[in-house]
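Continuing the batch. This is chain 6 of the set; chains 1 through 5 are on the previous pages. Same settings as before, nothing changed between runs. Recording input and output for traceability.
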Amino acid sequence: MLKFALKLDGVASFALGLLTLLIRPEVGIPAGWQIGLGSFCVLYGAGVFFLGTRAVPDRRIVLLVIIGNAVWAADSVLTATLEWFPLTGTGVVLVLAQGLAVLGFAVLQAVGLRSAASASGLGTRPRPRSHA
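Output for chain 6:
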C-alpha cells in the first residue's frame, strides 16, 4: 500500500503541476506564485513517484513526504481562509480540494509506512507481559 500511495501522490502532484504551469487558471494567486508552485509540484511529483518505485522506500524520506503533505494540507486551509491571496470563489474551492487530497495522501502513506514497518519487523515491538 505504501508504494501505491507514493506513486498516486506522485502522479497527482505532477499532473497538478503541469496543469498549473500550462493553463494557469484564474484563481486569484499571482502568476509568479502559480509558476513557482507548479514547478515545485512537477519536481515533487516526479521525486515521490520515483520513491514509490524503490523496492523498499527509505523510511526517513517517506516520513519527510508525510510531514510535508500534512504541512501542505494545513497551509491550503490557511491560504483559503486567511486571505493571504485574493482567491476567487473557484480558487478557494480548488485550494481546499487539493489540500484535502494531499491530506488523504499523507494518511495513506502513514498507514502504508506503518504496515510496511510491521511486516518487516521494523515497527515497535510489544512489551513482554509480566506475570506477577
